[in-house]
C-alpha cells in the first residue's frame, strides 16, 4: 500500500537584491528533502516580481495561489524585502496555506532594523548608537567618528559600508539609499561577531543551537566576504559560560518580543560590556553551508533533518 507524500511548496527568488541568495537556499532545500516522504513543488518569484513554476513558466499570482492551495505546507525561503518582510507570509495566511517560519508582523518588525533597535531597547538589550536618515535628511548628518552605514530594510550586507573618513560618507549613504528610502548610520562596535539560532517547537519549547562565531580577516563581514568563502565559522563558538548565557537570553528575548516562529537567526557583537544586538533574520540563509544549518549540525541535527523538523512542526500545528 502506497503512502501519500506530503506536498511541500518551496518558494525562492524574490523581487529584491537578495534574489540569487534566495534561489540558492531554495535549491538546497529542494535537493535535501527526502523524495520518499515529500513531493516538492517549486515556485519562484522572479526579479521582476512575476511568479514562475518549476519549468520556469509564468503562472501569475492567481496561478501561484492555486498551486499553493494544492500543497500541504509551504517553505518560503525568501530573503529580504517583498519576501522575508512578511509580505509572502501574509499571502499564505490569506490563501489558507500553512507555512514554516515567522508571520507577517514578526517578519515586518525584524526586517526594519530601526524598529528592531527600538524593540531591543524596550526590553533592555543593547544596540549600537545610531541615527536614521532619508534622502531629505542625509545632508544634515555630520561625520565625527567611524560609523557603519546600512539600508534599514535589506539583507546579505547589501549596501552596507564602514565609513572611517568623512569623504567616504556621501558614497556610502548614496549606495544604501539606492536600496532603501531609509538609511541607518550606527557607531562601529568593537567585538566578536556571534550568531545564535532559535527554534520554537510545538508546545512552547524553544531550542537554541550552539553559537557560531564569524572571523573575518579584514574585520568587515560584507556581501563579498559572506559568499567568497574567506570567512571562518567557528561552531560551537568558544565562549565563557557567562557570555553564552547572556547571548542566549538576549536571543530568546528578541525572538519573543518580535513574535517569531520557526527558526530565526539573531546576530550579535560580543563586547567587553556584553552582547550588542546587530540584527534579527526571520528567514536566514538556508543552504547546507549557511550559518543556521551549521549551528544545528553542531547540535547533531543534520540539514535534511532540520528541514524535516520545520515542516513536521507546521503540519502538527495545522492538524
From TrEMBL:
Taxonomic superkingdom: Bacteria
Keywords of this entry: ATP-binding, Cell shape, Cell wall biogenesis/degradation, Cytoplasm, Ligase, Magnesium, Manganese, Metal-binding, Nucleotide-binding, Peptidoglycan synthesis
Involved pathway(s): Cell wall biogenesis; peptidoglycan biosynthesis
Catalytic activity: 2 D-alanine + ATP = D-alanyl-D-alanine + ADP + phosphate + H(+)
Location of the active site: 18, 156, 290
PANTHER family hit by this protein: D-ALANINE--D-ALANINE LIGASE, D-ALANINE--D-ALANINE LIGASE A
Name assigned to this protein: D-alanine--D-alanine ligase
Catalytic EC class: ligase
EC nos: 6.3.2.4
Main location: cytoplasm
Localisation per UniProt entry: Cytoplasm
Positions contributing to Mg(2+) 2 binding: 279, 281
Single GO term (MF): ATP binding
InterPro entries recorded: ATP-grasp, ATP_grasp_subdomain_1, D-Ala_lig_Van_CS, D_ala_D_ala, Dala_Dala_lig_C, Dala_Dala_lig_N, PreATP-grasp_dom_sf
GO BP terms, alphabetized: cell wall organization; peptidoglycan biosynthetic process; regulation of cell shape
Record note on cofactor: Binds 2 magnesium or manganese ions per subunit.
Reported cofactor(s): Mn(2+); Mg(2+)
Biological role stated in the UniProt entry: Cell wall formation.
Family, similarity comment: Belongs to the D-alanine--D-alanine ligase family.
Domain ATP-grasp, residue spans: 117-312
Residues bound to Mg(2+) 1: 267, 279
Gene Ontology CC: cytosol
Amino acid at each position: 500500500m502506497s503512502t501519500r507524500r506530503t506536498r511541500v511548496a518551496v518558494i525562492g527568488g524574490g523581487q529584491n537584491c537578495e534574489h540569487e541568495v534566495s534561489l540558492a537556499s531554495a535549491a538546497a532545500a529542494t535537493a535535501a528533502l527526502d523524495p520518499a516522504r515529500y513531493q516538492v513543488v517549486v515556485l519562484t518569484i522572479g526579479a521582476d516580481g512575476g511568479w514562475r513554476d518549476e519549468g520556469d513558466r509564468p503562472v501569475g499570482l492567481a496561478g501561484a495561489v492555486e498551486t499553493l492551495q494544492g500543497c500541504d505546507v509551504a517553505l518560503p525561503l525568501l530573503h529580504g524585502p517583498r519576501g522575508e518582510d512578511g509580505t509572502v507570509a501574509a499571502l499564505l495566511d490569506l490563501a489558507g496555506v500553512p507555512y514554516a517560519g515567522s508571520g507577517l508582523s514578526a517578519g515586518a518588525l525584524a526586517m526594519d532594523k530601526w524598529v528592531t533597535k527600538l524593540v531591543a531597547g524596550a526590553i533592555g538589550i543593547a544596540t549600537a548608537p545610531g541615527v536614521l536618515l532619508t534622502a531629505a535628511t542625509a545632508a544634515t548628518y555630520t561625520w565625527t567618528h567611524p560609523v557603519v552605514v546600512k539600508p534599514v530594510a535589506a539583507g546579505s550586507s547589501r549596501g552596507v559600508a564602514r565609513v572611517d573618513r568623512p569623504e567616504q560618507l556621501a558614497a556610502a549613504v548614496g549606495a544604501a539609499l539606492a536600496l532603501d528610502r531609509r538609511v541607518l548610520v550606527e557607531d562601529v562596535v568593537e567585538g566578536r561577531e556571534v550568531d545564535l539560532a532559535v527554534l520554537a517547537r510545538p508546545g512552547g519549547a524553544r531550542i537554541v543551537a550552539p553559537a557560531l562565531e564569524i572571523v573575518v580577516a579584514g574585520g568587515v563581514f560584507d556581501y563579498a566576504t559572506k559568499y567568497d568563502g574567506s570567512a571562518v565559522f567557528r561552531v560551537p563558538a568558544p565562549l565563557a559560560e557567562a557570555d553564552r548565557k547572556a547571548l542566549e537570553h538576549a536571543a530568546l528575548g528578541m525572538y519573543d518580543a518580535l513574535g517569531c516562529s520557526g527558526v530565526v537567526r539573531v546576530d550579535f557583537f560580543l563586547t567587553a560590556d556584553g552582547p550588542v544586538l546587530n540584527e534579527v533574520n526571520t528567514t536566514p540563509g538556508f543552504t547546507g553551508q549557511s550559518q543556521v544549518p551549521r549551528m544545528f549540525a553542531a547540535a547533531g541535527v543534520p540539514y535534511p533533518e532540520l528541514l524535516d523538523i520545520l515542516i513536521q512542526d507546521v503540519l502538527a500545528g495545522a492538524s
